[in-house]
Structure formats: C-alpha cells, structure tokens
Amino acid sequence: MAHPATTNSSNRRSLCSYLALVLSHVIFVVAENGEPTAIRISCGSSHNSLITEQSYLWLKDFGYTGGSSAPIDAKITGAPQLTTLRYFQVSDGPENCYNITVPYGHYLIRFVFAYGDIDNSNREPQFDVSLEGTLVHSLKPGWSAEFDMSCVDSLVFINDGAATACFHSSGHGNPAVVSLEILQIHNLAYEILVPSNKYTILKTVKRISCSAISSGYGADFNADPWGGNRRWVTDNGLTKGTSDQLRTSKSIQNCCGAPNFYPEIIYQSASTTGIGASLYYTFDIEPNQNYSIWLHFAEISDVIVSKEQRVFDILVNDRLIFTDIDIISLAGGPFTALVLNKTVLVEGRTLNLTFRPVQRGILVNAVEIYQVISMEFVTTECEVWSLQALKHSLGLPSRIGWNGDPCVPQEHPWNGLDCSFNVKGGSWSIVGLDLHDQGLKGQIGGAISSLSQLRSVNMSSNSIYGEIPAQVGNLYYLAVLDLSFNNLNGSIPDGIGKLKHLQKLYLNGNHLSGKIPISLLAGPIRGASFNFSENTGLCGIPGLPSCGFSLTAGTTTGIIFGAITVAVLVLACFLCLWRRRSNIIRSRRSLRQAPFAKSRTSLKKRDLQLTRTYVGGHLRSSSFEKSPPLLY
Ligand SMILES: *[C@@H]1O[C@H](CO)[C@@H](O)[C@H](O)[C@H]1NC(C)=O
Ligand SMILES: *[C@@H]1O[C@H](CO)[C@@H](O)[C@H](O)[C@H]1NC(C)=O
Ligand SMILES: *[C@@H]1O[C@H](CO)[C@@H](O)[C@H](O)[C@H]1NC(C)=O
Ligand SMILES: *[C@@H]1O[C@H](CO)[C@@H](O)[C@H](O)[C@H]1NC(C)=O
Ligand SMILES: *[C@@H]1O[C@H](CO)[C@@H](O)[C@H](O)[C@H]1NC(C)=O
Ligand SMILES: *[C@@H]1O[C@H](CO)[C@@H](O)[C@H](O)[C@H]1NC(C)=O
Ligand SMILES: *[C@@H]1O[C@H](CO)[C@@H](O)[C@H](O)[C@H]1NC(C)=O
Questions:
Q1: Which ligand lies nearest to the CA atom of residue 315 in the structure?
Q2: CATH 2.60.120.430 is right for the domain spanning 197-374
Q3: Domain locations in the chain?
Q4: According to the lineage, what is the superkingdom (predicted)?
Q5: What is the per-residue burial (b if ≥16 Cβ within 10 Å, else e) of 593-611?
Q6: Contact 341, 353 (CB under 8 A)
Q7: Closest ligand, as measured to the CA of 355
Q8: 31-185 adopts what CATH topology?
Q9: Annotation: CATH topology of 381-511
Q10: 499 CA → ligand 7 middle, Å
Q11: How far apart are CA 361 and CA 243, in angstroms?
C-alpha cells in the first residue's frame, strides 16, 4: 500500500499539509458554529425519507455511475430504514463509483453492504472498496453473515471538492451497497501525524464500547454530531479470558469535547478482571500494516479510589506499548476520562491486544483500532480529463468501466491502461492504451494528445471512424501506433512523421487516402515498421498505387483545364510585356530624335504609365517624371 514517495513530493506534501493545517483552523472557526456537513444516501431508493426520531434525512440515490436498484428482502439489523440497495453487474463494468460534492474537510465515510440475493445465485459477492482512489476495504467470504462486517467506516480528508467512493468487482458476484454516509468530523480528529493526517486514511478495524448493553451509534448515545455518529459495538463475545462487567451512571469528567467528541456512555461501562488476571482482545487484520490504537479509561470502580491501586501494562502481540498505566494518576482522579493512543506496525494476521496487571486487576472502557492507510497519489488531472473525453468520443461500452481514477487503486487500474508513476510530478500517467477488438464505434478525438506520456496505442480491430487526429503528432514518446482494421478515413497526419520514437505504425485495413507523408519516409523514423496496406486511397510508396493513378477523372480534368488556363495567361502576359517593351524603346528613340515634340503631355502620361509597369512601380518612375522639364 505504501506508495513511491519522493523527497520532492514529500516536500510538496509538507508544504500542502502546512497550508491545509492553517486552512483547517480557519475553516474550523467557521464550522464550529454550524452543523457538520452530513450526506446520507439510501442506495437504490427513489425517494427521500426522514427518520424522525434521529431527525436524519436519508436521501434518495444519486451521484452514481451506473448499476441497478433492488429491494432488500430481509430488514437490515441496525439499519431498518434501509430497504433498497444498488448493485453492479458485469455489464455495468468492473468499477462503479459514487461521486458526491462536499466541501473541503475531514469526514467519516460509512458504507453498509448487504447481499440480498438479488441475482438468485446465492453467491455472496466479493469486491474491493476504495475512497479517493485508495483501497480501504475488501469484502472477504462470510462478510454478509454479520452486520458488523458489512458496516465499515473510514476517516478521510476530502480536498478535491467531491467524495469518490468506488466498488471494484473481482468477478465473484455483483457488488452491492445499501447506504453511503459522508459525515463531517473535526479537522483534528484522531490526529496521529503532525501537522495533519491529510494524506492518511484511518480505516476502522473495530470500535468497542466495553460491556455496553448494546451496540449503537453516537446519536443513540447523545454524542455531539461533530463526532461523525461513530458506531460502537459491545465486546460481548470479543473479550478473551474471564472478564466482568462494570457500569455506572455517574458523570465522567474530561470526556467529550473536541476534537474527537466521544460519547460519555463509553466511559460509563467497563470490562474488568480480578486480581492478577489479564484481559485481551484479538482482531483479524491485514498483515504488515500500521495500526493506530486508541484506548479509553475512566476509573468507575467504587473500590479503586486513589493512585497506585490499579496498575497494568499494555501489549500488542507481546510487545509492550504502555507500561505501568495508573488510570487515576494519569487522568487526575476517578470518574475522569483518560485516552491513550499508539501507532504500531503489526506483521502477522492477528492483532493481540493484552492488558497485563501489575497491581490488582484490569479495567478498560473502550478500544478503537484503525488501520493506517497512506493515500494513493492520483492520476495527472489533465490525463483524467483526456481519458474521459476519449471514453465519450470512442463511445466506450459501460462493460469496460472507466469510472473513478484511471490508475489507482493500483490493484484496479482501468481496463486497457498501462500506468506509470511520475516521480517528479508525484502523480500517475498513462503510458499504454490497449483497446483492440472492443467493438468501439466512435472517433478518436484530439484530446488524446493530453496523454503526453503515451508509448503505445493499440486500437486495432474496432469500427473507429473519422480521421486520425493531427494531435497524434504531439505524442512525443509514441513508439507503437496500431489503428489497423478500423474505418478511419482522411489522410495520414504529417505530424506522425515527427514522432522520432515511433517503431511500429500499423494503419492497414482502413479507408485512408492521400499521399503517405514524406516526413514518414525521409524523417528520423526510417527504421520503423509500417503497414499501410488495404487502404483503397493511400498512395506514394512502393507497394501502393502511385499517386498520379489514383486521381479521379474529375480531378484530372480539373488539373488539365487549370494547366491550359495558366499557359494561356502566361503567353498573353509575355506578349503584352513584349509589346510594351517595344513601345518604350520606340518612344525613347522618338524623344531623342525630337526633343520639342508637341504632344508631350500625352506622351509623358503614357511613358510614365509604361515605365511604372516596366520597373514595377519603383521610385525610378518619379525621376523619369521629373526629368522631362529639363527638356524645356
Ligand atoms: C466528481 O464531482 C466533481 C464535482 O462535482 C466534478 O468536478 C468531477 O469531475 C466529478 N468526477 C467524476 C469522475 O465524475
Ligand atoms: C508504518 O509507519 C512507519 C512510520 O511512520 C512507516 O515508515 C512505514 O512505511 C509504515 N508502514 C506501512 C506498511 O504503512
Ligand atoms: C497520542 O499520543 C501521543 C503520544 O504517544 C500524544 O502526544 C498525543 O497527544 C496523543 N493524541 C491524543 C489526541 O490524545
Ligand atoms: C494473545 O495474548 C495472550 C496473553 O499474552 C495469550 O494468552 C494469547 O494466546 C494470545 N493470542 C494470540 C492469538 O496470539
Ligand atoms: C494489437 O493487438 C492485437 C491483438 O492482441 C495484436 O495482434 C497486435 O499485435 C497488437 N499490435 C501491436 C502493434 O502490438
Ligand atoms: C470521413 O468519413 C466521415 C463519415 O464517417 C465523413 O463525414 C467525412 O467527410 C470523411 N472524411 C473524408 C476526408 O473523407
Ligand atoms: C500488412 O497488413 C496486411 C493485412 O492488412 C497483412 O496481410 C500483411 O501481411 C501486413 N504486412 C506486414 C509487412 O506486416
């Protein structure tokens, strides 16, 4: 998941992060006075529904790239108001997305998934989920059996004006989504990286309220809406080792403010152990990832009232992460909240969180485990625009997809693309485009020239029509261009001959016409391999008709007629000039012979005119105009 960060781009990021931090403070001043942005979409639903007891508005489905809607047969535990889903079949393409406009900010984004057996295949779908181009979740076999496995959330900064959530099919069943919530949280919530988590996603692995009577959302627990309505699950069945439940109704000090806005209730219950007994939780996790662990304590036992009465160590997979934790000492008193956080790299597939007593037994109120995911660098913006234009002009069928970001998540690039990471720019670029034999019936379009890193294009065996855009000549690195067996017409753009890296140019099997550009034959790419055959109108190289013979009768007549006209005109001019020249010579001779000629004016006028014509109207004519008075 780690991406090829570079010194350059980290510099860029630190600057950006710094600016973002400054900005986030500015924005927060505004935001604190208002309500957080909250968008709740009931996927597949055709009407808005207001849930009065929570005063939530579940919006009808919008902002999606495709798919179909279906009712869910069984009601979803924990989300009974959701009765429809949106699902994506093979014909909808391998990736489908929601693109929802939201202001800059930090968000909790939650999905609820369900398999409603909409396709009657009894095949639980397996698919991947990405946010902002970064893979955050994989639905593994068995996920649909438990609500907690199908309700997943992540904390992410949205800084491009729209939250993009995509579902990537793995070919096992139809991805389906019941709801999507985009809930704004405090910009500094769960900050583990200073100055900001801006390029990090925290994906919730588990959020436990120990010994809670039942699982529930922040709103169920009267939490501040800026907390993102996090879901807390009870640890019934999760604790390993013997534990007891402890609850209180007394209020808790220091528990519930900015930036994380915890609900007070999570501190009012705890799991405890007797003297000397450990308490531990195990979580199934992705190996070799960083996990951010947040632990919540408040001494709520009536027995433990002062420092040094309860002391314990905390370990992750037998590695100490905190030693000698004394809740009362660290929190400043009983019934006072204490939050500890630590980020650890976990190698195996299990995260074993152990509380080991030093003095008496254990007490723990809540546990949060987040997977720390570095956000992917995305594709160069103008290349995304260019591909979208190409998708449109080529009329790409929806089964090919092309939704979300072209190159990321790296596990799921768009069909037919080869991407390469541009270290200098800190973004992805398209280097290869292979859409051969896809039944395409559109045009190529000049926008392709923005894919400036393209090395190879293969669009052979489609029904692409229109002309080869001249802009192809701007694809400096292009080495392979295979447009064979399409319906392309017009002539081969001259610019192709300037592509000095070109090695293969296959244009055979089209309706191209005109002369093969000289630049292709004499330019820097003479060694390249060409195929121009099976184009009725092309001419000009050995193996193709010679250009003269391919002229139509009409054109030939035109050319001959034109040539005759030109010849006649040239002859006429020549005769005319010859005559005028003789006139001048004659008149000069007559001037010399008769200096006091009578008809001077008319002579002068005619001579002047003649001279102008003769010397092309240069100043010399005026000296001739002046000179006659000397003759008086
Ligand atoms: C997503 O929405 C934003 C803002 O409305 C828009 O600028 C962007 O082009 C959209 N992206 C896609 C892939 O449709
Ligand atoms: C885990 O965090 C460390 C320290 O921030 C970092 O160097 C490392 O690349 C991270 N590992 C993964 C897999 O993200
Ligand atoms: C997280 O822990 C670090 C020390 O490990 C501490 O400096 C930081 O303040 C803690 N953050 C919160 C929000 O408690
Ligand atoms: C977790 O740790 C506890 C105590 O150290 C140990 O008894 C247990 O076997 C461990 N579980 C796993 C799955 O490693
Ligand atoms: C284009 O794709 C077709 C089908 O795979 C292949 O036969 C052809 O060789 C490719 N063209 C080039 C230039 O590689
Ligand atoms: C190419 O074909 C299109 C129709 O597909 C036609 O409109 C256009 O005029 C043709 N261009 C040339 C140069 O023949
Ligand atoms: C050029 O393409 C034609 C089919 O259009 C094929 O028969 C011929 O072998 C190709 N020539 C070369 C040199 O590849």
A1: 4
A2: yes
A3: 31-185, 197-374, 381-511
A4: Eukaryota
A5: eeeeeeeeeeebeebeebb
A6: no
A7: 4
A8: Jelly Rolls (2.60.120)
A9: 3.80.10
A10: 22
A11: 10
